[in-house]
Amino acid sequence: MQRKWFYRLLLSYMPFFVFVVLILSMAFYYRWNVETKERIRNTNDVFTAHVMNVVDSSFQTIENYIVQQMLTDEWIRNYYNAHEPTSPFAAYEITQRLNELKTLFPFAGDVYLYNKENNEVITDNSMFKLDQFADADFVEQAFHGTLGSKWTSPRSYNQFLGEARPGQVVSLAKQIPITSSVPSGVVVINIQVGSLNSMLQTIKANAADSINLAGSDGTSFFERNVQAKSSKPDAWGSSSVQSPYTGWTLEVNVPPLEQASLLSVFFEAWMLPVLGLMLIGILFLTYITHRNYKPIEEIMIRIDRYTLKRSLSMGKKTAHDEFQFISSALDNLVENSHQYEKRYQEDLSIRKKYWFYELLEGNFSLSPDEWMLEAAQLKLPETFESSIVMIVEIDNYQDFRNRYSIRDQKLLKFVIHGVIQEIAQGEQVPIWFEWKEADQLVAILYNQWDPSTSSIDTIAQAVKSWISLNLQFTASIYVGTKANDAEEISHSYQDAWKAGQFRTVHGYNNIYDAREGQQHARGDLYRQLQFVKTLAKAVRAAEPGWRDVLDVMFAEMKNDQFPRERVLDVVQYIFDELEKLQQDMPAQGEGNRSMQLPAEAMSELTQFDLIDEIQEGLTTFLNELVASMQQWQNTQDYHSLISEIKSYLLEAYSNPDLSLHFLSEKFELPSRALSKLFKAETGERFVDYLIRIRVEEAKRMLVQTSDSVQSIAEHVGYLQVISFIRTFKKSEGITPGEYRKLNQADLQT
User: Fold this and answer.
1) Which residue, among 450, 446, 464, 569, has the nearest Cα to 512 in the 3D structure?
2) Is the pLDDT of residue 608 over 50?
3) Which of 148, 439, 492, 591 is 20 to 30 Å from 661 at the Cα level?
């Protein structure tokens, strides 16, 4: 590029540039003036309509609320139904209600009631006869319906005759009863014009030059605005709107703008500095271009050399376009920069999740100094002092998945993510959180500035409440113990997770705090295993009492606060015990198929979160199993015989001579055949069945009576107390005396 061509190019476009800038400047100024006036006028129209809507809404709210009270308040309804003078107590109650109504008005005012039958007027502070009430004429007009159904224009109002300075109010009168065409009285609502004036003057001070409100008859509400109205501002700056509700007209005026012609704009004083600065700019641009031409020339030379070299390497001559070369280079540079930034952000996100999971799993391998450098890049606190792990788990996640599509699930999780972040920021607690599982969001809260952890409790409560109030599902919050370094974060997470296991007992939409130190199972699993054996035998024998055993077992697990894993262990023991009993059934026939355990039964129960849901599902399964067993038993020839024997045992269990030989003689059946049939029917040997009956009766007597162990042993068929104690301990794991102390202590507590 030659210097002569450069100057020619510069001087060729410079005049056109100056001319366009001048024309655009003047056109912009003129257009700006016109559009400014148009926008001000439109804004004033919208503002006027909004102010009128605010006034209408306030007055409609007052009217609706008063009408509602007239229809629902018992004292007011009784007042209008009365035909005798109002008692002082009733007048006091009505006055109190009128005062309560008055306090709810957005403008200062009052309400009074008129009853035609007793010719009385009750205000918010007094009771008058109509001829003693200063506003009697208005009441008469309102009662006869000559005022219409809209708010009045400003009028004078006093309660007492002879009062020197009446107040200015606007009024609304409603005939009572509202739902009847034959009135028995009137309720009058008065609003002080001064309160309405104060509100409108505040609006005027903030957004208008003058503002005027006129009644339906043209009467101005405010005398001081009459002169302002008569000044006749420009039509463009004045907006008025008439309310369809009150019939009032609101007029708002804005200060006028000065008109400017295109020629005056050009000759205004502000254009001279613009022209001067433009001339200086042109000279400066020319000087700088001339002075800095050498570096540009060097760049152009290098571009030429690169283009020539590339052409020679390709063996053909290519078009020489410096600007295209520069544009391509810049595009490549920007694109590479964007790709690098995107990859860097993705890398930060991956690293952030990686270290988050490493912390929770207890595999964090960075030293404090290394973490300080990493935390600076990840924009996280440099220390974990006084940190606490909090888990937010969506309740009944299976129902959540069935109810919402995958897109909606992601959207709702994003909402929860944003809400938690906003709440934590409101408490000024730094937070680091990720969705660790599909239904679990895990957060590390940095509580360095509040060692009392009160802010953590506030955040947990706020998150739980917001989700339950604003979403169509709930979430449970698990709060771990305090951690002071990276290694303790995993302990806090494990503690929070263990605390959340008690959701099975206490239900959804709760906060489970591991710091309380009280959420642990108090029960003994051995006792539940005894219930399991009893329940399995009752189900195998299709006895009606199996449901009572199941209810007592789950009631004790709830009372002992068994976590979900332990409850599922007990349920698994039930399935194992039933499977053992199934193996003892006849290898062929319907009986074995009746006790067939479906493979998916246990997996279905593990889908439930709450202990009540687990109990309900297990009850349904066992109920079907018992019904199947009963159906099979009814098909057996010996079913009625075994049922008769079982009934006999329930009555004669106290007989010490009761034995298999004794029963075989009584029922005229060989003892070996009787034993085989009894085991096939009940799943138990005769001896075990008899011991179970005797032990259950002994347990009842130990708890409900004060009889001695010797006496109880004799009552249940044991002549030797030693034999009774040995049998009882083998069945229950403790002696009869220990059982009595333990269970009577539970009853007393």
Assistant:
1) 464
2) yes
3) 591
